[in-house]
Amino acid sequence: MKKSIFIALIIIVQFSLYGCGTRTTTEDAALTQQMSLLNERNKQLEEKMSLLNEKNKQLEEKITVLEAENKSLNESITENVNSIRDFRFLEIEHDYCYYLPEIIEKNSKNVFHPGLLKEGDQVVGLIVDEIQEGKGRKVSFKGQFKSKLKITEDKDYKYEKTTYKFEVVDSFDDKVPKDIFTYSKNNHMVYRLEDENANDLINEIGTSLREGVEVTVVLDNYSISYDLSDFVNRAHFVKLLSID
User: Fold this and answer.
1) Which end of the chain has less neighbouring CB within 10 Å, N or C?
2) In contact, 139 and 131? CB cutoff 8 Å
3) Alpha-carbon distances, residue 72 vs 65, 77, 79, 125 (angstroms)
4) Nearest 5°: phi and psi at 159?
5) What is the pTM of this model?
6) Would you call 150 helix, strand, or coil by DSSP?
């Protein structure tokens, strides 16, 4: 009886071990298959990444080429604009040469050509402080100066509120810096004062303000800006000396 029980136990143990071995082999096979699939997928992803890196490299090369072309185009545009500007300046210099004998004869030391000035030059006591180059040119002077202005309403353009022109009167026409553009057109010097600055002067004139009123003032920060089509003279109002 005991022998039969012992044999039965051996059979059960072997069956149990056989069953466990079968399950382990099946799971290993499944895991191996999954690992193989993952490796294959990883390989495919690496190939895709390699292709993307190659495309990215090609795009970067194209961008570099386009940036170079864009830089070249911008340089070409700038060169063309400067050529047009320089041609226009040559025309202006021709006008300057045309009026030069007259300027010398009149001994008009206050007349200047903005294109021929350089920093440090002086015009009737004002010093060229800065020259800005671009599509046009801006020449800025430093130093205060006295001028007599005739104030009239600016009717050349339509504004929402009344604006004024500040024109140098005859008695001061040779005492203030005068650009060749103004001189060649036989016009009196006209300054543009910024709105707030102009309002300060108008407010100081007060009830004496009328069309064509003449005032003696101190100005500074004179500058002229000009391009291929137009020019603007600007000045900064400092103080009112008298209403004439």
Assistant:
1) N
2) yes
3) 11, 9, 10, 44
4) -115, 160
5) 0.61
6) strand
